[in-house]
Structure formats: C-alpha cells, structure tokens
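Notebook B, p. 112. Complex prediction, attempt 2.
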Amino acid sequence: MDYYKTLGIDRNATSEQIKKAYRKLARKHHPDLNPNDTAANKRFQEINEANEVLSDPESRKKYDKYGDHWKHADQIEAAQRERSTAGGGGFGRGGSFGGGGQEQDFNDIFGSMFGGARGQARFRGHDLQAELQMSLRDAAKTEKRTLTVNGKQIRLTIPAGVENGQTIRIKGHGGPGMNNGPAGDLLITFSIADDPVFKRMGKDLYVDFDLDLYTAVLGGEVTVNTLDGKVKVPVKAETQSGTVVRLKGKGFPAYKKDGVFGDLFVTYAVKVPVNLTEKQKELFKQLANS
Amino acid sequence: MENEELIPVEVFCTTCHVETTLIDTLAENGLVEITVREQRRYIAYAQLERAEKMVRLHEDLGINVEGIEAIENLLERLEELQVEMTGLRNRLRRYGENAQ
C-alpha cells in the first residue's frame, strides 16, 4: 500500500498537509459516521494506517526509504552493515523506496530474517458477521439472548420490532486488533422466519379469518387471534368476503419506540356451509326465490 | 451495584485524554447525560459508548460540538431510514411472492 496515494498527497507534503488530508478523508470514511458499512470501515483502516506512519517524522523517514518494510528498518540496516562488512554486494546504495532492484533485496532479507513475515502497523480488527434466526413472535418482544462467538459469550438485548434483514453492531466483539489496535465489531443480521398465521409488513400485521355464512349475513361477534391473545371483534350484518377490518394497536411493536404498535388487519373469507341437510337446502331455495 | 454502573467524569476524561470541559459542553448541549451523586459527576455505563463516540468525533476528526449534534441527528435519521428501507424491501418481497 502506498501511504501517500492512500491520503492523496504528494511525497513532499508537509505535516500540516498530511493532517488536513487525513481529517478530510476520515470525516468521510470514519466508522462512527458510516455504521454497518464494511467498505467504509476497511477504507478507514487504510487511511488510519497511512496517517499513523506519515504523521510521525521517524516512521515517515523509514517508510520513505524502505516502503512496506519500514517497520524493520533497523534490522535491514543492521543486515546491510553485516553484508557490507562480509563483502556482500547489493546494499548500502542509499536509494529511496521505489527502486525495483532494491525492493527485491529487501524481500531477500525478510526471507532470511523473518521467514517471509511482513510487518504490520497497528490497526483495528476485522468486523465479524453473524446471522441470528428468530420467529416472528420472538421478534415481537424484547429478547435477551446469549450468543457464543469465537468462544466468548455475548449477552445481547434485541429490541422488539426488529426487521427481517436488519443488522445491529456490537462494538468490540469482532476480530482482535493488530499490534494493540482495537478489536473490530460484531455485525448481527436478523433472519426472521415467516409465520404460518400472521404476515408482517413493517409494523402492521395481516391475518385471514374464515367467517361463517350466518355471521356474515346476520352479523355477530367473532374471536380473532392476535400476537398477545384473543380479542372479540363485532361483525356487521351483510359482511362480504374480502372485507378487511383494522384492529388498531394490535399489530407489531415499532422498533425502539416504546408503546407504539402497528395495526392488525383481518381479512374475512366467508365460508359457505357444506353437507347441508335436505331441510336446509329447502330453506336456501326459499331464500333464493324470495 | 448502582455505583458499579457509573464512571466518574474525571476517570473517563483521563482515559480518553480529554479535558473535562469537553464533557461539560457535550452535557450542556444535551449530547451526553451526566449523573450527579454526592456532588460527584458521573457518566452512566449505558452512556459510555455514546460519550466515547462524541470524543472520537471531536478529537480524531476535529468536529466541534455543534457539528457533533448535527451528525447525531443525521445518524439517527439514517438509522430510521435504514430500518424503513429494510421494511419496504420485505414488503416488496411479499408482494412479489403474492403475485406469483
């Protein structure tokens, strides 16, 4: 990674220009300003790493000379001195970072000194993604759950009204940071299974209800299931099939809004009686001819 | 038990390397809640994440308190819109299923 390119500055930028460039980019990509945006998060890690190195004059000097291997500048120089004393060629030219041949030489040194390991600046750990499956009825109440992530137990309070596909961020429970950097976050996405009875649209619920013909024609009262129990609903006489009635406040709780609920919409399907007796058929004929 | 959930303001400020005046200003603007017990000022544990975020915005990004307030309002609105968008996506998916 070219730290200068990352910050969009010239190689001879002043410390003030570095600070200005960092702040400008950080204001755009900072994780606090981009919740749940992993791309912005990754970009910010790069910006932060570039700033940490370039804003420190000593680190910058090493970076300018040794590029990605700047953290091992002291070891490189020691190795160069050893080789020079031993008569080995290829080092001590004092060139700046960017020369292809010299870069190859640095890689050789790392191969022998660290078994190919490369140095890394301090930065935040990666975010971890997890999916949590819930039923619609569980999502209707504030739930406390304990999750085990990477061997650690995390107590989690899930507010009532969470949406299918919604993601929440748990600070500091992601991958560990590198070189004392802070840990990443845990992003939990909720997967809410469809309910066999209720259909949810936002905070409203929809339910179908089979209405017997006699109550539909003459009116009466029916008992309808809601999420928090049964309610009695009056039925007007001559109710048609497909009629929708709204039960205010009997729907789904609104996310993070205490005491606010959507509505329950009941759609009536008028059921025609079957297995009629001869007498009942006769009565219907009388009705039909009346 | 209750005391364990409160962090003295000066401890918070020392840990975050900020002046207590910053917390005062944030509290004056209603951005952080300060709890006073026996003439000592505390930040509730539940407020800690929020307070740390404000400090990061101020210290890392050089945003003043008025700017932080505006950002907080916009982030709240963003969260509401994200929830609404997810809801609308689910709704659209259901319409698609019903149409099939």
